[in-house]
């Protein structure tokens, strides 16, 4: 195994704007800005937010607004969406919003696009209304978005101002093989949600790489894998800290979604065997432990799958512990 492999890999952050138990969204946004500034200083390449709705513990529903807040409070790190759920919006509105962001923060904005609703079906209906089946338009909506960003759209009856003629990288996000085929067909970079949907990861990136068609946007395949990270001085300490994210995913599978809870000493007291198995399956691509443990496991992961970039997401209750985890994770790539 090449122990220097990670030195060649860019590393980034996915922030779900997690709301902690006992706190409010305003506290979350303040904490996110501090983490983003730290990430910039630690050499992280990107800082992305994901669009979610109707979740008590996730405050990233107004994704473009948060991107502007973080980009305005940092200087060099790329800021973007991981992702915008395109069927929730018209391509024109997305083009205008991200055109505005890219005009304010040139060469720093990324636009990751997904097709899921980012919520439950009832809320999806409230968001999409008559456009509920817009998910089926996802490939055409990406085409429309690319057209709106194109300088060639200048003579169209419908134009994105600002947005037109701007270089805003578009990514396809996914948690299944469908997204892999779409990203490959369009010659776009591919970000996989292996932090919660590990089952299709290996198959999806294989499909993407084997079917990739070079485009004006990208000459060869580019895969970013998002993984869960909890780093601490010892494996034992990291395992205790990770009980917060495990309880969060327990809430996902039981339908009891709450704000992020403080860690517990014995997570096994909080679930039965079936629940434990379900949570651990969802968290399969998680890197929990000391710096050395994470470095060893992450090197094996990158070596096996040949990913081009790693994006970490960390659900850690204590803010200082989260900052320290972020620092330790960055040091893995040195």
Automatic annotation (TrEMBL):
Domain of life, source organism: Bacteria
Start and end residues of each Luciferase-like domain: 25-303
InterPro entries assigned to the protein according to its UniProt record, in alphabetical order: Bact_Lucif_Oxidored (IPR050766), CmoO-like (IPR019949), Luciferase-like_dom (IPR011251), Luciferase-like_sf (IPR036661)
GO CC entries: cytosol
Single GO MF descriptor: oxidoreductase activity, acting on paired donors, with incorporation or reduction of molecular oxygen
Signal peptide coordinates: none
Record-linked PANTHER family: LUCIFERASE-LIKE MONOOXYGENASE (PTHR30137:SF6)
Similarity annotation: To bacterial alkanal monooxygenase alpha and beta chains.
Protein name: Luciferase-like monooxygenase
Organism of this sequence: Pedobacter chinensis
């Amino acid at each position: 195994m090449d122990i220097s492999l990670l030195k060649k890999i860019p590393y980034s952050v996915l922030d779900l704007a997690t709301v902690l138990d006992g706190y409010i969204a305003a506290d979350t946004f303040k904490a996110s800005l501090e983490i983003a500034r730290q990430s910039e200083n630690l050499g992280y390449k990107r800082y992305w937010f994901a669009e979610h709705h109707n979740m008590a513990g996730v405050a990233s529903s107004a994704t473009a607004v948060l991107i502007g807040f973080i980009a305005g409070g940092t200087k060099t790190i790329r800021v973007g969406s991981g992702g915008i759920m395109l069927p929730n919006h018209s391509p024109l509105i997305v083009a205008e919003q991200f055109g505005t962001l890219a005009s304010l923060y040139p060469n720093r904005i990324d636009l990751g696009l997904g097709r899921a609703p980012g919520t439950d079906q009832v809320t999806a209906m409230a968001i999409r209304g008559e456009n509920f089946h817009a998910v089926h338009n996802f490939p055409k909506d990406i085409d429309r978005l690319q057209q709106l960003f194109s300088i060639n759209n200048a003579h169209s009856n419908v134009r994105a101002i600002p947005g037109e003629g701007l270089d805003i990288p578009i990514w396809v996000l996914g948690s299944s093989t469908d997204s892999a085929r779409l990203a490959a067909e369009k010659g776009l970079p591919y970000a996989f949600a292996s932090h919660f949907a590990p089952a299709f990861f290996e198959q999806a990136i294989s499909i993407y790489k084997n079917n990739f068609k070079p485009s004006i946007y990208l000459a060869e395949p580019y895969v970013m894998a998002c993984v869960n990270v909890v780093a601490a001085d010892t494996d034992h300490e990291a395992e205790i800290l990770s009980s917060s994210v495990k309880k969060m995913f327990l809430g996902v599978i039981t339908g009891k979604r709450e704000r992020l809870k403080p860690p517990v000493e014995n997570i096994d007291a909080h679930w039965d065997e079936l629940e434990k198995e379900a949570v651990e399956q969802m968290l399969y691509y998680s890197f929990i432990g000391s710096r050395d443990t994470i470095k060893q496991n992450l090197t094996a992961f990158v070596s096996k799958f040949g990913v081009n970039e790693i994006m970490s997401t960390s659900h850690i209750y204590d803010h200082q512990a989260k900052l320290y985890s972020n620092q330790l994770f960055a040091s893995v790539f040195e």
